[in-house]
Amino acid sequence: MRVVYRGLAAAGAVAAVAVALAVVLPAEPDEVAAGPVTAPPAAPSSSGSAPVPSGSAPAPSSSGAALAPSAAPSSGSTGSGSRPTPSPGASLAPGYTAMEALYADPRVPRLTRDVKRMSLPSPYKKVVKDARSGLAVPRLGRPWKPVGAAPFTTRQVLPKQRGTRLRGTFVTCPLPIMHQKSARDTALLAARWTLNHHPKGSRITWLASQPVKNGWMLVYRVIYGKHQSRAAVVVMDGGMSKPGLAFVTVPDSQRKQWRDIGRVASGVRVLG
């Protein structure tokens, strides 16, 4: 009997301790009741917007779509007040225009009224015909020579130089970008596109801007480090499904041929 009583007493003690713990400790901590909890970051939705924690500034409206994953937004704006600034050369999400990307690109300054017209020399009599773009362009004399055109439709180049891959190049092709209602805007976008064919880090300064028959012409300096090239684009409607583009660039190592820039610009014509 003494052993039985001792067992009952021990069981009662264990039960009392269990009841006390149940009273003192809750079965599961209540984090919400304990105080405010910061919401975890949420993945952006397909529209580019994300939930906003209570007390935070509201997110931009759906009209300011987020950049595509390949481009991170910068701290500036395009002037609309709600859109992040596109990065140079970035792919844009729906809602951005090509001109917004242009104006946000620090490599390409605004084309102001201070940029004047230039006097154009007489064009060459000999021409190269580009049936795909609908353009006839000057056939430049020596030291220029025609070479294989791909991926363009016509190409003329200056001789290669030792120690550099840069050399004068004059090409034509159907416009490789989306054309705009304004020929001037299209030429601006074309000039920005030509930076793909200059050294990394290149930037533009404008030298001349003027209308030409059925299009627009821009002449500009491309600066990269301690060197520069002179370049020009002519965008012209040659009666094809897309306007035609003539583009010439000459590095400072071949500056004697800078005079040909104006001859190219004055010599682009619609193929008759």
TrEMBL record:
Positions with biased composition (Low complexity): 44-91
Record keywords, A-Z: Signal
Signal peptide stretch: 1-22
Keyword Signal part of the UniProt annotation: yes
Highest taxon listed in the record's lineage: Bacteria
Ranges for region Disordered: 36-92
Name of the protein this chain belongs to: Uncharacterized protein
Organism listed in the record: Nonomuraea phyllanthi
Record lineage: Bacteria, Bacillati, Actinomycetota, Actinomycetes, Streptosporangiales
